[in-house]
From TrEMBL:
Signal sequence interval, chain numbering: 1-21
Catalytic residues identified in the record: 63 (proton acceptor)
Protein name as catalogued: Peroxidase
Enzyme class: oxidoreductase
Length: 326
């Protein structure tokens, strides 16, 4: 009797990877062999028109995944009976790239109709965007399905890190998903490309925490220039400033050097230097750029596996902006 139970136990142990469906590196090899080529072309075209789009596609993927998993929910438009995520605080007037995903989806549907999820397209597009920006490349397991629901504002506030919140909160938003402190440091390196609006860091320039003074952890010459780019008036709120002005289009490790020089735009980024553990990781990525390239790919794969829907748990949307209706 005990032997039989043991046997059943071992069979289940060895068969479990087979019976529980998983993402697969070869998922579309037979059904959409040109997928990577199509996505790369679409991202290349988008970046050729607007270099910032590389950063925007990476952020779109992050905001999709960190809120209730990678399920393409961020792509869904509002309707009279459905409220999506893209017009909620944290995403509205900030996340961009939806048209690029639509265009790629159109080309993918032409080549392989109803085969590739919008979520996998977003995932692939951010990998291609990093690669085309001079960054690393990594293998991606595929087979994510698209969700049919969206988070509400409270779900977004609870899961999406804010540039204004305490570092401990940001850490717990990552660790509650199974992402580590190291993943946080590595993925924050995504801020080596792209831009922030003045509204994301203006509170540091004039009256930090009600002190009447600027944030003391901000470099003083950067402070002077930021005050002139982002004057203390509401009409400067949407002005864009590069996270990594030395190379805002190149995916390299220089974002970490800005932190070392007290030049992080976001309070939440500069906070990486205020903690010994994360600061020593930052120092490592400055010293050994290869470690950053290698670790970034690994952490991106982890992030892109958060809460994925497989098999019948989701659908292959026809239009990335709307759930299918049958
Ligand atoms: C750790 C907590 C994080 C916070 C608090 C944060 C916050 C922000 C903020 C405030 C902006 C500027 C948005 C705007 O002004 O409209 C931004 C932009 C950006 N974020 Fe993050 N972020 C975080 C993590 C990440 C991660 C993990 C990634 C990707 C791996 C990422 C990628 C980007 C990119 C690429 C941009 C520039 C987008 C563009 O130029 O369109 N961020 N982030
Ligand atoms: C893949 O793309 C190549 C080059 O554009 C084309 O010749 C080929 O027919 C495509 N294959 C499939 C299966 O769509
Ligand atoms: C090119 O980029 C601009 C924004 O910089 C955008 O308004 C326009 O729609 C883009 N054009 C194409 C063809 O993607
Ligand atoms: C962090 O590093 C500083 C300076 O190297 C040191 O004085 C402090 O004791 C360290 N704190 C912890 C908690 O290790």
């Amino acid at each position: 009797m005990e032997h039989k139970l043991l046997l059943v136990f071992f069979c289940l142990l060895f068969l479990s990877p087979l019976v529980s469906p998983q993402l697969d590196y070869k998922y579309y090899d037979a059904t959409c062999p040109n997928l990577t080529r199509i996505v790369r072309y679409g991202v290349w075209m988008a970046i050729a028109n607007d270099t910032r789009m590389a950063a925007s596609l990476l952020r779109l993927h992050f905001h999709d995944c960190i809120v209730d998993g990678c399920d393409g929910s961020l792509l869904l438009d509002d309707t009279s009976t459905f409220k999506g995520e893209k017009n909620l605080l944290g995403n509205k007037d900030s996340v961009r790239g939806y048209e690029v995903i639509d265009k790629i989806k159109f080309d993918v549907e032409k080549a392989c109709p109803s085969t590739v999820s919008c979520t996998d397209i977003v995932t692939l597009a951010s990998r291609e965007a990093i690669y085309l920006s001079g960054g690393p490349y990594w293998a991606l397991p595929l087979g994510r399905k698209d969700g049919t629901t969206a988070s509400d504002q409270n779900g977004i506030l609870a899961q999406l890190p804010s540039p204004f919140e305490a570092f401990e909160n940001i850490i717990s938003k990552f660790t509650s998903k199974g992402l580590t402190l190291k993943d946080l440091v590595v993925l924050s390196g995504g801020h080596t490309i792209g831009f922030a609006q003045c509204s994301a860091f203006k509170h540091r320039l004039f009256n930090f925490d009600g002190s009447g003074n600027p944030d003391p952890s901000l470099d003083s010459s950067l402070l002077t220039s930021l005050k002139s780019v982002c004057p203390n008036q509401a009409d400067s709120d949407t002005t864009l400033v590069a996270f990594d002005p030395a190379s805002s289009r190149k995916f390299d490790n220089s974002f970490y050097k800005t932190l070392l020089n007290n030049g992080g735009l976001l309070q939440s980024d500069q906070a990486l230097m205020g903690d010994n553990t994360t600061a020593s990781m930052v120092m490592d990525y400055i010293k050994y750029p290869y470690w950053f390239s290698r670790d970034f790919g690994a952490s991106m794969v982890k992030m892109s596996n958060l809460g994925v829907l497989i098999e019948q748990k989701g659908e292959i949307r026809k239009n990335c902006r709307a759930v299918n209706h049958y």
